[in-house]
Amino acid sequence: MPSWLPGSGSNPPPSTQPSTMGGGSGNWMNMDNMRYAQGELTGENDAFKGLGLELTRQQRIMGFVGCLVGGFALSIVGSVLLFFGSTVLFAILYSIGVIVSLVGTGFLVGFKRQLKAMFDPVRIVATLILVAAFVMVWVAAFAIGIDALVLVFVVILYLAYIWYSLSYIPYARSLVSNMFSKIF
C-alpha cells in the first residue's frame, strides 16, 4: 500500500501530522496539528501570559477589531461635537479614540511586544510625536483654551498615528514619501 494513503502504517495520526492540502480544522498554513491550535508553535499565548490571559487567535482579532471600531467611533463622536462648538469634548474623545485604536494593535502582537516596538528606531520619532501631540491636545484644550490650537494638535496627532501605523506595513512609508516627493 502506498505511504500516502491513510492507514498505511507509515504516517503519524492525523492530529499530529501537518496538512499539506490546507484542509483540516481551518488552519491554512500547513500547520494543522494540536500544538498549533493551542498556540504553542505561534507563541500567541505567550504574548498575554504576563496578564494572566490566554487568548485564541479569534479573540485577539476580535479585540483588535473592537478597539479599532471603538476608537473610530469615539473619534467620530468627538468630531460631531466639534461642529456643536464643544472643543474640549472633541479633544477628549478624539484623542482617546486614537489611543484606543492604538491599543488594538496590542491584541495582535501582544502588549509587551507592542510597547517595545513603539520605541524601535524606525518608529521612535512617530511615537514621540504621537505622545507629544496627545499631551498638547489636552494642554491646548484645558490649560490654554485656544480652539484653533486644539485642532492643529489633533491634526498632528492624526498624522503621527498614520505615520506610526505605516511603519508596520513593508515599504508603505517609502511609497508615501515617494508620492509626496513627486507632488511637491
TrEMBL record:
InterPro entries: Vesicle_transpt_Got1/SFT2 (IPR007305), Vesicle_transpt_SFT2 (IPR011691)
Record has Ribosomal protein as a keyword: no
GO cellular component, as recorded: Golgi membrane
Membrane topology: Multi-pass membrane protein
Main location: Golgi
Stretches the record annotates as Disordered: 1-24
Role description: Nonessential protein required for the fusion of transport vesicles derived from the endocytic pathway with the Golgi complex.
Family classification: Belongs to the SFT2 family.
PANTHER family associated with the record: VESICLE TRANSPORT PROTEIN, VESICLE TRANSPORT PROTEIN-RELATED
Name of the protein in its database record: Protein transport protein SFT2
Lineage: Eukaryota, Fungi, Dikarya, Basidiomycota, Ustilaginomycotina
